[in-house]
């Protein structure tokens, strides 16, 4: 199996070089970028498996790079880094479509663990190949989604959230349960992250079709076909 490819984007040269060398030691293929323009070009041309992206890079900054990727339906997994350990920054990054967020300074082993966790979450699952509800079909092997035969483009996080909801169809899941199962980490207990992604999913999978994601006030969300 070919090694996983990572793009490390950071304008702090010493940190970028040291981090890239360490990731290569762990068996990853690593490329580098120093600003937002280089990052977007590298993602488009070289298609890394995952991007380690510092928020404070210049021209444009990391959040704008992330916003641009998701606006163009690019599902490349993104792990954000930032020296600003601010909950609002984490929530904003996750709401824009980041797969994880790690404040600086960080332990290298924790970074590796989070990268591996992202790869586990996006890996095709063995067993049941499809999930179906009404006219919505999820292919777990190909990581594709269709409704009424029409393809729907989802980010990796949106896809994981949809799989979580559909795997528990008919069962009410709290926001805390969604955060635990979809993100695996405690992001400050901010329920707004789950709310934001539920909103994203609804806009994508419920256009032109019956409602599938239902709010159970005071408890959470449940996925079921309308009767």
Structure description:
This protein is an alpha/beta fold. Helix content is 41%, strand content 21%. Strand 6 and strand 7 form a beta hairpin. Helix 2 runs parallel beside helix 3, helix 6 packs across helix 7 and helix 6 packs across helix 8. The longest helix is centred in the middle third of the chain and has 15 residues. The chain starts with a strand and ends with a strand. 32% of the residues are buried. The mean pLDDT is 88.
Give the topology, please.
Elements: E1 5-9, H1 13-25, E2 29-33, H2 36-46, E3 50-54, H3 62-71, E4 78-82, H4 87-95, E5 100-103, H5 108-122, E6 130-133, E7 136-139, E8 144-147, E9 150-152, H6 156-167, H7 175-183, H8 191-205, E10 213-216, E11 220-223
Parallel strand pairs: 1-2, 1-3, 3-4, 4-5
Antiparallel strand pairs: 6-7, 7-8, 8-9, 10-11
What labels describe this entry?
227 residues, Rossmann fold, Arc Repressor Mutant, subunit A, 2 domains, four-stranded antiparallel β-sheet, 11 strands
């Amino acid at each position: 199996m070919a090694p996983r490819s990572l793009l490390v984007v950071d304008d702090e040269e010493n940190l970028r070089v040291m981090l890239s060398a360490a990731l290569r030691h762990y068996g990853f293929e690593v490329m580098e970028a120093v600003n937002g323009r280089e990052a977007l070009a590298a993602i488009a041309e070289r298609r890394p498996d995952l991007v380690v992206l510092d928020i404070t890079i210049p021209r444009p900054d990391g959040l704008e790079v992330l916003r641009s990727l998701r606006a163009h339906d690019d599902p490349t997994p993104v792990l954000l880094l930032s020296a600003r350990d601010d909950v609002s920054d984490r929530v904003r990054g996750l709401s824009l479509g980041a797969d994880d967020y790690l404040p600086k300074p960080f332990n290298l082993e924790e970074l590796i663990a989070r990268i591996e966790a992202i790869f586990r979450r996006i890996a095709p699952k063995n067993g049941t190949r499809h999930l179906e509800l009404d006219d919505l079909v999820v292919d777990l092997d190909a990581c594709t989604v269709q409704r009424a035969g029409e393809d729907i483009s989802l980010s990796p996080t949106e896809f994981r959230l949809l799989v979580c909801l559909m795997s528990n169809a008919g069962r009410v899941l709290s926001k805390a349960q969604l955060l635990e199962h979809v993100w695996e980490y405690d992001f400050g207990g901010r329920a707004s992250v789950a709310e934001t992604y539920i909103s994203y999913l609804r806009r994508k999978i419920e256009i032109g079709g019956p409602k599938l994601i239902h709010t159970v006030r005071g408890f959470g969300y449940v996925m079921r076909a309308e009767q």
